[in-house]
Specification:
The complex is a heterodimer of chains A (278) and B (598). Chain A is 70% helix and 1% strand. With 278 residues, chain A is mostly helical. Chain B contains 6 helices and 42 strands. In chain B, strand 36 and strand 37 form a beta hairpin. With 598 residues, chain B is mostly beta strands. Classes of the chains: A mainly alpha (278), B mainly beta (598). Chains A and B meet through helix 6, strand 2, helix 9, helix 10 and helix 12 of A and helix 1, strand 28, helix 5 and helix 6 of B.
Chain lengths: 278, 598
């Protein structure tokens, strides 16, 4: 009950639910859904992720001295996210992407503590851009059609979004996807409706909806901006889907966060200009 | 560390690199369905293989056949023909015993089969009706035509497998086959492949049915046929069966526990553990492949994981080919899979056998891992240089209205989208209206891997083996008895092609061919083995199972390229029915030698 009250009052960091979702999903999927990740892949992925986090934590003054366990949990969460979303037969793949994810969080930052890109999405996009496509896939295909993972992701995700104050992003994204699906796809019967909207309700669609685009560090804080941000992602995702580009979700999120960074810089420069002119 | 995030150059660098990455992604490596990234990319000197060439001679020979789309038992899914379409089976047999191989092609429900009789390698005429093979498809779609002597009379019998209930036709002295389908005692199933061997050491051919789909009444397989995102160890396919030959009929061997209900495409046979008994390998779609060792009493041990580690399986097994590709005396195994990144990233596997009967995958090292949506594959020495080469078929399907690459939409992509839909919603999805103008691995070429000094090189484009038809069936034939192995390719919507091997071999390269006749007078032998040494130290070991492969019943003779080497020492021939090993002498190179059992 105490935890429930804390959730209602937003007194818990949403990352615990994001990480909790990924980590428990990996374990449950290995036990019940035949998740094809070897012990070596998991171990090496975690080792690289944690080590990179620790090194950057020590090298930078981004976080206070007493947050080492919090930082390591953050790295743990990100590597678990990669283990859920990426599938590769290469033993070192998760180690490399895990290190990249954590490094991106430290190296690619806006002013202050916030990073520019969702770290997991950044690692996926760099892999997609620069690595051969036959090295990996970015679908959790072992479990993505089953009901349990959907329930699991939604439950953890709704709480994480509530705590992260990004519910507007999720809701606007749902509206945006429905709107743009109707705009792009010829929906004239149940089958075409299911084709257009069905994938959004699978496990990967739900991970994206609740746990990726809603990252409080990378999404805007104001509600109006959140609505525009979510609509932009929904538009780009559906546009790319219509033109049969793979991994349209990851591409859409990457481009929109990059644009958002550019716009923030522009706004900052405009503010500075106004200040000097005053 | 100094806060660099306010630095103008840093900010510009992030923006420029971010957008440049996206430009690179879309321009250089577009994440779309591509046909050019499904092959081996190893660079090599093409000129060294310039003498290898194939030519489509179907029209010249008078062979004209194009399969129509057929769904097999999945008639409720008739609208989904693009996805579920079956390739014809092609048999190479000498049905009139004139020394030249004829070609039998199964077609589709309500269509006549075709038997092309070979006139000394110069032309073919269609004579299915004269042999009683024309009208066998009144009720069900045909699946596979399997030939052998089942009733011990020395004449060639035909097991005519259908997607439904099967036919059995015995050979007669006037060449017209007689219907004895009662041998099956009502056994019906949905096989994609069939094979036979003497599993019980009784001198009788027993049948293995590799049932792709569940048998009528077992369950509905069709809802799980989603090509991408393979579910491991799928349990809704057909159950494979061993049918014991009782002399006057077949009975299902209940002790043969092929427990899984995988989607088996075929059953390959070889003596895997070299105990003199035929063992079985099932190449399975949507599941792990399976390897069973035979104890000779109708029982089989599943040693898949011990011999070929499951973690390496492609989970889209299409073809089984047992062949000693490196002439070390050990029979290796080649299994084709689907390589279509990023949808499916499963390599073809070349399992090299070691002395302790375990296998190691060497397909990536040797350069035979990638050939798109691979189906039928067979080894043969194309240029008689003494090194085995490899044919691989590639391609899936397309709508009839698409005639060239670039038209239509990728069904790979759409299938991938659909596979993300929750299962309970997907039940409502009926894809009938969405398949017009679609393709799946269409307009992709076949592969022709030629071996040189132990490595393979894909020379399909140089050798004229690169048509863009969607081919699955492969059958090897030397139709003109010139000692150069020709190939027949066919697919679910493509024209059947006879590809004549017009390679100009070097003058000091030789070959040797064998045809066999046992005491019964039987000329097609399942399980016959031949062994001999060459002067260059190579060990030649061949096991004759003409039905190993995909939908092809291959030339039942043996063809062996010798290169510059000569046969050294005795030639051992193991006759499978009598289980007698015979030493043969006085063989002549550069011709087919008839070996008669004594």
């Amino acid at each position: 009950m105490n935890i429930f009250n804390k959730i209602i009052k937003r007194e818990i960091n949403g990352r615990w639910f994001l990480g909790g979702s990924h980590i428990t999903l990996v374990i449950i999927s290995i036990l019940f859904f035949n998740l094809q990740r070897t012990a070596l892949q998991i171990g090496f992925g975690l080792l690289c992720g944690l080590l990179t986090e620790f090194i950057f934590y020590k090298l930078t003054d981004k976080y206070g001295e007493h947050q080492v366990w919090d930082r390591l949990f953050s790295a743990f969460t990100e590597v678990a996210g990669l283990l859920v979303l990426l599938k590769s037969h290469i033993w070192w793949f998760y180690g490399m992407t895990g290190a990249l994810t954590v490094a991106a969080k430290y190296l690619l930052r806006k002013t202050g503590k916030t990073h520019i890109f969702n770290p997991t999405n950044f690692a996926i996009m760099m892999s997609l851009t620069f690595l051969p496509l036959h090295w990996f896939g970015a679908w959790p295909d072992e479990f993505m059609r089953d009901w349990y993972p959907m329930l699991h992701i939604t439950l953890f995700g709704v709480i994480a979004v509530w705590l992260g104050r990004t519910m507007t992003v999720s809701l606007a994204y749902i509206v945006g996807v429905i709107f743009f699906c109707y705009l792009f796809f010829p929906i004239n019967d149940l089958t075409s409706l299911i084709y257009a909207l069905g994938p959004e309700f699978g496990s990967i669609g739900l991970i994206y909806l609740w746990l990726m685009i809603t990252d409080p560090k990378t999404a805007p804080r104001e509600h109006k901006q959140q609505i525009v941000y979510a609509f932009a992602i929904a538009f780009l995702h559906i546009f790319l889907r219509y033109h049969q580009y793979l991994y349209s979700r990851y591409i859409a999120l990457f481009i929109v966060t990059l644009l958002y960074y550019g716009i923030s810089l522009y706004s900052e420069a405009a503010e500075a200009k106004a200040k000097y002119s005053f | 560390m100094k806060d660099y995030t306010k630095n103008l150059y840093y900010r510009l660098a992030v923006l420029i690199c971010g957008f440049a990455s996206m430009a690179y992604l879309f321009l250089m490596n577009p994440p779309r369905d591509r046909r050019d990234n499904v092959y081996e990319t190893k660079e090599f000197n093409h000129k060294q293989f310039g003498n290898v060439h194939f030519k489509d001679v179907s029209a010249e020979l008078g062979i004209d056949f194009q399969q129509i789309k057929t769904t097999g038992p999945l008639r409720a899914h008739d609208g989904d023909l693009l996805v579920i379409a079956f390739s014809p089976s092609v048999s190479v047999i000498d049905i009139n015993n004139d020394g030249y191989m004829d070609i039998f092609v199964t077609t589709a429900r309500s269509r006549s089969n075709l038997l092309f009789i070979n006139h000394k390698g110069t032309s073919f005429t269609e004579e299915a009706a004269q042999y009683g093979l024309s009208d066998l498809n009144q009720k069900d779609d045909p699946s596979y035509a399997f030939w052998g002597d089942f009733n011990d009379d020395g004449l060639l019998d035909l097991v005519y497998a259908r997607y439904g209930c099967h036919g059995f036709f015995t050979g007669t002295k006037n060449n017209k086959l007689a219907d004895h389908s009662e041998w099956f005692n009502g056994y019906c199933s949905n096989p994609n492949g069939l094979n036979a061997a003497d599993f019980y050491k009784r001198g009788k051919l027993d049948l293995i049915f590799a049932n792709f789909l569940a048998a009528p009444g077992e369950s509905d397989s069709s809802n799980d046929l989603w090509m991408t995102n393979t579910r491991y160890d799928n349990k809704s396919g057909g159950k494979n069966h061993l049918l014991k030959n009782e002399g006057s009929g077949f009975s299902v061997e209940k002790r043969a526990h092929f427990l899984t209900r995988s989607y088996s495409h075929n059953a390959g046979i070889a003596d895997i553990n070299m105990d003199g008994l035929p063992d079985i390998f099932f190449s399975n779609d949507y599941a792990h492949d399976e390897m069973f060792l035979n104890n000779g009493e109708g029982r089989f041990s599943d040693l898949t994981d011990q011999y070929i580690p499951k973690v390496l399986h492609g989970l889209s097994g299409m073809n089984t080919e047992f062949f000693d590709y490196d002439s070390d005396g050990m029979i290796d195994l080649y299994v084709t899979n689907i390589f279509k990144p990023p949808f499916n990233r499963h390599f073809n596997l070349l399992w090299k056998k070691s002395e302790d009967n375990t296998y190691k995958n060497v397909s990536n090292d040797l350069g035979v891992a990638k050939c798109g949506f691979s189906w039928g594959a067979k080894f043969a020495d194309i240029n008689n240089d003494g090194e085995a080469d490899l044919f691989v078929m590639n391609g899936r399907s397309r709508s009839n209205n698409l005639v060239k690459y670039g038209e239509g939409k990728s069904m790979w992509y759409e299938r991938n989208e659909v596979s993300q839909i929750p299962r309970f919603i997907r039940k409502l999805y009926k894809p009938h209206d969405t398949i017009k103008g679609r393709y799946i691995s269409a307009f992709e070429r076949k592969c022709l891997f030629i071996q040189k000094d132990g490595k393979f090189f894909d020379i399909a484009e140089d050798a004229g083996f690169d048509d863009r038809e969607e081919n699955r069936t492969l059958a090897l034939i030397d139709y003109d008895n010139d000692g150069l192995m020709d190939a027949i390719s066919a697919g679910p919507i493509s024209k059947l092609k006879v590809l004549h091997n017009t390679t100009k071999t070097e003058s000091d390269f030789h070959w040797i061919g064998f045809s066999f006749k046992d005491k019964r007078g039987n000329s097609v032998h399942h399980g016959l083995k031949i062994k001999f040494l060459l002067s260059n130290g190579k060990k030649i070991v061949r096991e004759l199972y003409p039905a190993n492969g995909y939908k092809g019943f291959n030339d039942p003779r043996l063809h062996i390229g010798l290169g510059k080497a000569q046969i050294s020492g005795p030639i051992e021939v193991f006759w499978p029915f009598s289980r007698v090993t015979q030493i043969i002498k006085n063989v002549q190179p550069d011709q087919y030698n008839l070996v008669t059992e004594k």
